[in-house]
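Complex record, two chains
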Amino acid sequence: MTTPLLEARNVTKIFSSRGSIGKKGSVTVAVNQASLTIHADPPSIVAIAGESGSGKTTLSRLLLGLVSPTSGDVFYRGRPMTALKGDERMAFRRDVQAIFQDPFEVYNPFYRVDHALEMPIKRFEPTKSADERRAMIEKALGVVGLRVDETLGRYPHQLSGGQRQRVMVARALMLNPSIIVADEPVSMVDASLRATILESLLNAHDQLAIAIIYITHDLTTAYQVCTSILMMYSGAMVEVGNVDRVIKDPLHPYTQLLVGSIPLPDPTKRWAANVRSATSASGQHSTSQGCSFAPRCPHVMDICREVTPPLFRVNADRAVACYLYRDAPVVSPEDVSALYIGA
Amino acid sequence: MSAAVLQVRNLCVHYDTDAGPIKAAENVTFDLAKGERLGLVGESGSGKSTTVLALLRMVTSPGRIRSGQVVVDGTDLMQLSPEQMRRMRGSAVSLIPQAAMNSLNPVMRIRDHFYDTIRAHDRSMDRRQLAEHSAQLVESVGLRPNVLGMYPHELSGGMKQRVCIAMGICLQPKVIIADEPTSALDVVVQRQVMETLGRIQRELDAAIILVGHDMGLMAQFVDKLGIMYAGRLVEVGPVADVFREPLHPYTRLLINTLPSLDVKAVFKGIPGTTPSLLNAPPGCAFHQRCPDASGSCYESDHVLTEVLPGRWVACPCYAGAAA
């Protein structure tokens, strides 16, 4: 098997705040023992989904090397992230590109958008002439479906939110990276433009063979875009597998709750009656033992409150961290990726 | 149309700028029956928030309501004095604001938010009655009465949104306006909040206007859907009909962009961008992006017309279809 492009092995990230007078410090486990493998060949296209506070953004930042794990390791092409220095670090920065949520804040308003597109080329390809840079930019804008004369030479405020976000997609794929990590790229964009942006990401995947990690709270777009999905709750991976199976037939009680709450754009399919009164998850998790979903779970058993469930391999392309499936074999972190490679 | 609790006629709101007026809402006309749920959808900048603020006469400078009528139960709000209008807010028409986290005063207990609102309209209640009434209100939205003694920062986003719902109904309004009440919430909490809102609305038999851009939420919640584009209401109809057979080309394209869980289709957005509301081109506001635009679309704007019973559309493509 080839060396994976990016791999997280049992990573945990704990944010702790020091206490002040009369107050105890608090500890937030943002990511708890998560493992994930992304391959370049064939390029994976994986969704990381969960509600706010589930740790999906922290996991993406760990993969981007923007924060370092409290325990566990992140590997880039088999090398631990912490060992990357100098040229290797530069190669990593070029190979792994990011797209962030807010297309309004990522631009410097004083520069034309050309600046945001030229900087990375100047940084990584300093020998390129102005004409060559222009050609690279025009090619990338073409992939995301933007017209050069309507985009270049403008200031960020002269573009719509959708156009700005597509310029960011163009910027990310311009240097031919192996992977793009897109953190909620469409959550701040209008519905009619959402499709266009996701379309340009899919084009990058299909035409340029770029692997994609799509981080989202929106299961419908995850279903449309990705082949595999990784559901997170309270920092832990609760269900992993082929996206069609997970969405159509969710096994973990949390995934079931989430899928059941999607407001489908179809007046003939309204929410089923009687939603259980469940409280919000954010800010409640602690380091205590047991399944973090236990307080909200309709199927909770004694063991759930005592021991954190491992991922059980329910079938060939699915693993679920829930004792309802404890008859199935336990998956070791190294094998988790095998669940969605073939997908 | 005698059953209509709210009648909006030719409402125009402009924002005056140095470059000229921005026509944020143009000739918005619709009716709302007692107990009916209307959804107003549109992209950002389409004028939906401006429209609902105008219903409460809460548009602030440089915005101004240029013309139009807003008739609630026979009273035209536009004709009232500022003091009369103040009395109507909350009791006739109430607003559940967007971003509940920012609409509660961080240094006031939840209890005092209720007391202030109620006493601004009704001075007859004493403290004990106020406490009882407030407790009933928070219980009706599924919160425990001890929430009343808390400060806003002690509540989660979903709880704050429910407090705002409880405040929106404390004077038993005839029309509740909810402006993107769940935009910052997770799907599970969103569902709970919407179900709370729906139950309360049925209990009061109030009409409700839900503003938002989430077509999924609209499909789940409303009876009647109004689609706004560039400050105009381009289509109004029963929600099931609009989804099954959209009449306006914009509605049709918008519904086609929605991802569903049934089929994995090829993504297609709507090409082009919304026109500037400052110097809007002549003709239909959508003609630059419309696949069906023809002759008259480039010249004159279309008026919202009832082409089938209960179905209104501002597009000539369907003007003949009714005949």
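Note: Chain B touches chain A through 42 residues (CB under 8 Å).
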